[in-house]
Amino acid sequence: MKTYQIDILNPKAARLLQDLADLKLISIKETKKQDFMKIVSKFRKKASNNVPTLEEITKEVENVRTERYVKNKG
Question: In the chain, which ranges are continuous DSSP H helix?
Answer without folding.
Answer: 11-22, 36-47, 54-73
